[in-house]
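Quick one, T. Sequence first:
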Amino acid sequence: MQLLTVSQLNTYLRDLLDADDLLSDVWVEGEVSSFNRHFSGHCYFTLKEGDAQIGAVMWKSVAARMATLPANGDAVLAHGRVAFYEVRGQVQLYVDTLRPAGIGVLQAQFERLKERLAAEGLFDQSRKRPLPPLPHRIGIVTSPTGAALQDMLNILRRRYPLAEVLFAPCQVQGAGAVDTIIEALCALYEADVDVIIVARGGGAAEDLWTFNDERLARAVFASPVPVVSGVGHETDTTLIDFVADVRAPTPSAAAEMASPDMTELLDDIRQLRNRLDAAVTQRLTTARDGVSHLNRRLVLCSPERRIRRDRQHIDDLMHRATITLERRITLARAHLDGVRGRLQALSPLATLDRGYAVVQSTTGALITDASLVAPDDWIEVTVRRGSFRARVE
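Structure tokens:
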């Protein structure tokens, strides 16, 4: 057995392929995938047919002769030579002519499936559900070993640590990947989550082909909660992107879409609190003004106030009546004094006070003339103080 170094082996393989006449002039039919035009102008892509694939290189000079460059999914006929790239130990087709051969088989299958599912209403915008603004539980379906998981967890911890994250691991490519993704989804359907993220990092189109499976599309369609798809990069489109409620360009973007930002929430809460404080203050001010107004009206309408007012009016009337009465009494007294003075002036007693006397017979008849009496007649003489009987001589 001969021992070879890696470089010796690769050189041997290169020479072996270069010596093959068939491989030096060959047409290959396949579907273009992972097409990438390097900044140098050279184009690198993969030709595939089912599970078989081969790397292809088209130099800048060849690409410059083409009216349009192929796109992923295009079925092409590529002419060139097959050689061994020693640096990477990779067999490649060096393309010098490229002709379109219609739509690629997988792409055609994808388009047919997409049209059928669309006709069944799996992509209808009317069934798209809004994402919960404040999710309590966020489910993640992705590979446990991919960088996408850590990126999403970091974003969720930074943006919204209040949410509980339930991770359902799965296989995101290769045989059996579809079954593990569906199992992970069903597990989260039973876990009472508010939203589910289905994600994987970027890769070649064939690596993402798992997410074009019809069974997976229907499983996402049956989700009881909104689903965010974050598969591949922004330019990648898979079938579940159309079925999901929200399509994110990357797994990181999916995590951002599924979670509110705590900083923004706190700002919103502060603004709402300020508005609430202002509203409460305004309501209190208005209520105080209303109470003051009612108090003033109550005071104006108060029976006590009316009683006090009437009582004062009564006091005024009594005062006026008293004054009037006193005035009248004074006048009456003055009048009475005048009458009394006049009466006293005309009173017989006043005459008696001046020393006069009233002479009457014993029968009470006034004796106003001396001829009315005779000697020895008894008469009654009344003076100022008292009276006495006397005999006429």
